[in-house]
Every structure is written in structure tokens, then in C-alpha cells.
Give the backbone structure.
Amino acid sequence: MSAGRHALLVLTHPRPDSLTAQLAHRVGERLAADGLTVDLLDLHAEGFDPRMIPADEPDWADRDKPYSAEVRAHARRLDRADVIVVVFPVWWFGLPAILKGWIDRVWNYGFAYGRRVPRLRDKQMLWLGLVSYTRERWAELGWDEPVARVLREGISEFCGITDVSVHFIHDSLSAGERALTSADLALQAIK
């Protein structure tokens, strides 16, 4: 990692004492120690509303549609970031509703996609998901690649981000210190 870069660290868990929150704070400390400035976006603490509203619904005829003030503020935070790290629990084999709503509302047509030259193209991204299953059971059930593919291709690459890593922390209900070590390893993907 290099000094002078800026990271947007997105936390999506309702409890500030959760393992997800602990990992996000650990990631923030590691990023800062490596010389990045860190903007912690705690979607729950900041009261982000994940529900789509008419003001933020895409207008396929107008990619320059002015979205709501809340969405424009979040888009500015994304714009400033060189690195985006999202720390989240995997619930129902996907993203928590608040994170899915953030993607739906903020990563919108005209901002995150729909332009010849994607605005997010030069960013680096790390998805750090906490899974309650062991690594073996997660793979046995066949969820490892479908969930990673949605994050990598369906969201990041669709929006022009090609430097993407997806890392799952398994057995999160009893991982303890192993989860922190696993998060440290995942951060090695950030250059």
C-alpha cells in the first residue's frame, strides 16, 4: 500500500460490538498504518436508508439525472476513494439488506455504470464477508463461487472496477482471533 491514497471502509452490521465491526475497525487501523487515510462509512450508525425512493430510481433516458442529496453525498465519498473495502456478514447467502440498498441507490446509472469510461474504473476493491459455515461446508454447499461472482463480476466489474478481491472469513460464529488473522491476510490484496 502506498501513502497518499484514500480508502472508503464500509461497515454493515447493526451491532457496534459485532465481529463484523471489530474486523472493520482492525482493517481501518491496518490501512491507516500503511499510510492510507480512511473514511469509515458505518451504514447503520449513519442511518442510511436502503429503500429505493423515486428520486434515486434510475432514469434510463437521462444518465445525468441528479439523484437525492443523500445519494450524491455517498457518491462523493466513493469518488474520493482509491480503495473500497466492504466488511459485511453474509446473510441468506448474500448481502445484508442495508448493503444491497446502498449498492442499489448509490452505485446508480450514470454514476457507477452507464458511461463509456466508468467513473470507478481506477479503484481497488476488497469484499470481506463473514460466513458462519466452515470453509469446507461453504464449498460443499456450492455457495463460495456464486456469492463471490456476484460481488466480483455482478457489482464491481460491472461498474468498471477490475482490481477486485473477494475474501470470506469462515466459521465466523466461533472464529475469534482467527478472523482477525484472516482479515489481515485479505488486506495483502491491497497494494
The CA atoms of residues 121 and 161 lie 5 Å apart. The chain has a mean pLDDT of 91. The first strand starts at residue 6 and ends at 11. The helical segments are 19-33, 69-80, 97-106, 135-140, 144-156, 177-186.
